[in-house]
Amino acid sequence: MSDANSLKVSFSRPSISKDEERSVLKVLRSGWLTTGKYALEFEKNFSEFMNKNPAMLDKRKEFGLSCEPVVSLAVNSNTSGMILAMEACGVTKGTAIITTPYTFVSTATCAKHLGADVYFADIEKDSYNIDCDKIEEILRSPKGKNVKAIVPVHIAGNVANMKKIMRLAKQYDVKVIEDAAHAFPSPTELGYAGTIGDAGVFSFYVTKTMTCAEGGMVCTRDKELAKRMTIMRLHGMDRTTWDRYTSPKASWEYDIVAPGYKFNLPDVLAAIGLCQLKKAEQFDKKRKKIVQIYNESFKNLDFIKLPPDGEGNAWHLYLMRIVPEKLKIDRYEFAKKLQQKGIGISVHFIPLFNFTYWKNLDPDFNAENYPNAQKQYSNTITIPLWPDMTKKMVKTVIDAVIQIGSEYHA
Q1: Residue pLDDT, tens place only, 249-277
Q2: Burial of 283 (0-12, 13-18, 19+ CB in 10 A)
Q3: CA angle 331-332-336, nearest 5°?
Q4: Beta carbons of 14 and 206 less than 8 angstroms apart
Q5: How do residues 148-168 score in pLDDT, each as one tens digit?
Q6: Which stretches of 120-222 are DSSP H helices?
């Protein structure tokens, strides 16, 4: 198996230029590294991005959704943002969320940190996103009375069925918190993914569609949720650090109004995010050009099934699905052979019922009861997709896939 240093094509690589370097140096030389004017500007610019398409508001109004402007709060990770959003929405001991088993573990563990239960709905048969019919089954069951929020995940940037999810939320009087870690920018009729429900959380981890190295953003149109999350983001203080050290009011005077967290995004990381945000749509176009080349190259191969696509797909990941009955090897062996050819790959995601912690919580949380999630996991390989991939890199990936498929075709 090839190690990272011998890869011909890395699985992912951030697009960092002199702009980001200069921006970070300005912060380092300013003497103020933690949350301050850069983080505030990042929040402001992100909100402006999310509010820039007024046509979306007409559709939201037709659908009975809030048309208030989006408020953005910078945080140090998507995980932190999810905890803030859940806490503000009332997720606590004695309540529950509904989410998908086909996600990174933090989507569910955030609720557990707050003392809440997690109910899982299988994914759709032909996509990776949560099945709305399964959500409704839970809401209609005795367990439904405990549900405080539905937490859909926009897997690989392909937006979940938010129209149906919002209808269910209204019908059963529950909140919607979007895990939009993969979905930026993802414009839909009802607004950008992450701004459709009561709250949405983005990730700026190093592999995401834009990055701060580490970080995230919480978005909401609800002023009360925004107020609560602002307080809880930094120890439950009634004043931010920036305000305490730049306001004429004495810096040591503050109150603790709630048992908050330490989830703020420092300026040194926000400086990267400010530059990345300006390039986000450019990155988006580059990824989609690569997706077109992949799709065109794979569409006539009987051992490959193209990834699902839909409105607003950000194409954060290219989830290549093999057709096992057309091959003499399984997904695991196919993935190993790609690595041996110098292709960086991953698998998104290992369903949560495969992990010891979750299996021990509930013996019924298993592959047999979530067949769609297990099937997609068993057949999926995530291949490289990042903006600065060269034509040669893309061709190297395609050639490797075709060579392996041809050699081991059933």
Answers
A1: 767 788 999 999 999 999 999 999 999 99
A2: buried
A3: 115
A4: yes
A5: 999 999 999 999 999 999 999
A6: 132-140, 162-172
